[in-house]
Structure formats: C-alpha cells, structure tokens
C-alpha cells in the first residue's frame, strides 16, 4: 500500500505515531510511505527510519525549494501544506495511486477497502466536513461557479495516473495569488476550487472522523446516535484536525481515547 505524508521537522513524532497506528490496524502486510519534505535533517530521517514499524518502508522525497515560491503561507499553514498538491509530479512514475494522510490522524480499522476503491474517473477520493450552507458561502468566497462540496484534504486517495495528465501547477499558483486575500485553509481552498468537481465523496463518519463531526452528527435528531462502540467497530480514520489535539491540554471530546490507545500499544512494543 502506498502512503503519502508531507511534513516538516516539527512533525516527526506525530508521523511515527500515525505510522504505528497504520501498521497495527491498517490491514496490509507492507506499506511504502513516501514522505515529502524540504527541511528534514539527516538525523531526522535516520530517526524516522529507525523507529518506523517493520512493515513500513520510508522513502524521503525532497521538494524543490522553488516549486511553491510566492505561494501564500502563515505561521499556522506553512509551505508544506501545498506539497501534497504536487505529489503526482514528485512520486515515482510507476505509482498509480496513493493514500495521503495528515499526521494528526490515527487509523483504527483496515484501510484496504478504501485503498482498493474505484475512483470512478475522479482525481481524488475525500470527505467534506462542511454542511451545505457553509459550502455555499465557501463557493462565493472562492469564486467557484460549480456546485461542489468543500473538501477536507487530511485524508485523500489520489489518482496519480490521471493527475499526471491533468494537474497544472501553474494554474494552482495563479489561483493562489489571485485569491490570496480570501484564502483561509489554502490547500483545501485551492483543491476545492480547482478540482472539487473531480472528487469522489467518502463517508466522513468512516474515513475522516473528528470530535466536531461526531458531535454534529449526534446533535441532529434525524441521525442514529453513534457512540464510541460504533466508532470502534466502523470508523477507519480518526482525524484530530484544528487546534483540538489529544497530545495537548485541554482536550475537548471523546475521540482522544483512540490516540491514547494507539500510543500505548506503540510504547508497549518499544519496551
């Protein structure tokens, strides 16, 4: 199974947490983890390779320094957030698909059904965390004429074969510069604006579950209630996006239990 990550030196420990959860619960025998970076040191890479699970082969892919020159960034959203958009140009030609994961995710059930899913002619498979009213507001903000959902880029299957034919870094840069003043989550804004109509939507409760998403689902009286037992049985990827992280205090929610369990299993293996 091909995996993709985009990190800087601050994310090394989180990457290892994520990789160990994948090795423990992801369902495949072997994983090739392609790690996009621009500032990892030799010591960082040696540390990752030494502490990665035995079933994970790490391949470090340096991103050319000038590839995203001039792209808007902020303290919270560094240049690395764009790297995943250029993945089809940076990964080996023989790869036809890859699963991108943010490092603030934990895998608790098999990734195999997702990885083997049919793209149905789309460039991506991903989830949305945004309800329709806010999606409409985002479309206005981003100048999107088509009726597309707002995409969360933290968990994405990428159709590398098609993306190599259709990805246009120049168009991405032009859009980023044109809409720089209104971009809030730059990589998500750009992917939604340029490729939102080429995304096969996945079930957010299964493949990109956050505490906020779980709370919103359970607050809607039309929905069947989902408790932690349901999550443990059905959800595949827990995503601790935003500022609410189980490795930081205070944490608000119930899904931190899965991070703590995954971390305890890894600590146990290391003893």
Characterization of this structure:
This protein has 271 residues and is of the alpha/beta class. It has one domain: Alpha-Beta Complex (Spore Coat Polysaccharide Biosynthesis Protein SpsA, Chain A). The strands form two sheets. Strands 3-2-1-4-7-6-8 form a seven-stranded mixed β-sheet, sandwiched between helices. β2, α2 and β3 form a beta-alpha-beta unit. The longest helix is centred in the last third of the chain and has 15 residues. It is globular.
Shape: globular
> How many structural domains in the coordinates?
1
Tell me the name of the CATH class: Alpha Beta
Care to count the β-strands?
9
Key descriptive features of the protein:
globular, Spore Coat Polysaccharide Biosynthesis Protein SpsA, Chain A, 271 residues, 12 helices, alpha/beta, 7-stranded mixed β-sheet, two-stranded antiparallel ribbon
Short structural description:
The chain is α/β, with parallel strands linked by helices. The chain has helices at 12-25, 42-51, 87-90, 112-115, 132-141, 160-166, 169-178, 186-195, 204-207, 211-219, 228-234, 256-270, and strands at residues 2-6, 31-37, 56-62, 97-101, 105-107, 124-127, 152-159, 199-201, 237-239.
């Amino acid at each position: 199974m091909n995996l993709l990550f985009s990190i800087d030196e601050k994310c090394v420990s989180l990457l290892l947490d994520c990789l160990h959860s994948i090795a423990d619960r992801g369902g495949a025998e072997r994983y090739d983890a392609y790690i996009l970076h621009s500032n990892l040191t030799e010591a960082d890479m040696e540390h990752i390779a030494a502490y990665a699970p035995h079933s994970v082969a790490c391949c470090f892919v340096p991103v050319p320094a000038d590839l995203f020159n001039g792209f808007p960034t902020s303290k919270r959203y560094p240049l690395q957030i764009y790297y995943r958009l250029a993945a089809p140009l940076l990964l080996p030609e023989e790869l036809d698909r890859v699963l991108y994961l943010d490092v603030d995710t934990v895998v608790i059930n098999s990734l195999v059904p997702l990885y083997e899913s049919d793209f149905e002619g789309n460039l991506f498979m991903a989830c949305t965390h945004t309800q329709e009213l806010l999606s409409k507001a985002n479309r206005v903000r981003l100048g999107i004429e088509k009726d597309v959902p707002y995409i969360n880029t933290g968990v994405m299957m990428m159709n590398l074969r098609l993306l190599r034919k259709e990805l246009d870094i120049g168009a991405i840069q032009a859009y980023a510069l044109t809409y720089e003043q209104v971009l809030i989550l730059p990589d998500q804004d750009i992917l939604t604006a340029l490729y939102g109509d080429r995304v096969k939507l996945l079930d957010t409760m299964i493949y990109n579950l956050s505490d906020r998403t779980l709370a919103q689902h359970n607050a809607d009286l039309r929905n069947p209630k989902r408790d932690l037992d349901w999550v443990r049985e059905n959800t595949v990827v827990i995503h601790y996006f935003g500022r609410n992280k189980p490795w930081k205090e205070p944490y608000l929610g119930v899904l931190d239990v899965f991070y703590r369990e995954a971390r305890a299993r890894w600590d146990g293996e290391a003893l």
